[in-house]
Amino acid sequence: MNPRLKVAKKKYEGLEFTNNNGEVCVVETYINAKEVYVSFNGEHYVKPFRIGNLVRGEFVNLYAPKVRGVGYLGIGKFTAKDKLEYQTWTNMLKRAYDDKTKEIQPSYKYSSVCKEWHNFQNFAEWCNNQIGFGVADCNGKFYQLDKDLIFLDSKVYSSETCCFIPQCVNLAISKRVSVSKYPTGVCFDKKAGKFIASITKFGRHEFLGYFGNVEEAFQTFKVSKESYVAELAGEWKESISEKAYKALLNYKATKETEYKE
Q: How far apart are CA 195 and CA 186, in angstroms?
């Protein structure tokens, strides 16, 4: 081994350096002045640093969980400048880990993001391989990330559970918070003394009829809702993934009223 390299290795390996953000790293392996490997909190950093940058504190830990306490940029070709990927990622983490969001919309309480997607590089790469990502509908709205169509009421954002679907489709399968004691699509008309079933289709409210009991009203709504979602599936078949299309065909309306995430 070169004597000068031997001295440098002895000098730097095991030494701590602190960057301008107060993050501390430890030099694990010194190859040369341009290739120094470090660890942050015991985690090996796969990208080498220059020793001069370490000395000056001019280095960044791209594995630091700076977004909602869990998300990190990671090392790869994607950056925050990739606006659609980054915005989709940060919005997802917000829904899953922001306390204020959960307070306003309690159904987010148990939501989480798989560990693989804590790394922005992994999420962005997945997005760019999905049908519907970056596609805008007729209203100029980008398709939305959905996590509970493929697996009903899924609380985990992951490559297995998520897909991109048009906003109008997402709205159609969404559940809403209701102060009513009656099932989704049902209300009571005091004047008529009967139950009313109704549905919103293509942005328009549609009256389905009067009924003598709650169950009849809901069943009418259910049939209409499932038929409408199947119609949307056919309309958007060519621009959504096969698994999203099949899930829409198999969609079942339920009585629960809550926010869909």
A: 7
Contact present, 134 and 141 (Cβ < 8 Å): no
Residues 118 and 65: beta-carbon distance below 8 Å: yes
* Position 258 pLDDT exceeds 70: no
The whole-model pTM stands at: 0.84
Name the residue type at position 138: C
Determine what percent of the chain is predicted with pLDDT higher than 90: 78
Helix, strand, or coil here: 259?
Answer: coil
Q: Are 59 and 53 in contact (CB under 8 A)?
A: yes
CA distances from 229 to 31, 80, 92, 171, 223 (A): 60, 35, 25, 10, 10
Distance CA 37, CA 27 (A): 6
Residues 20-47: what's their mean pLDDT? 94
Decide if 19 contacts 58 (C-beta within 8 A): yes
Helix (H) or strand (E) holding 206: strand 204-211
Place of tokens 């594995």: 63
The lowest-confidence range among 52-56, 148-152, 247-251 is 148-152
CB 144 within 8 A of CB 172: no
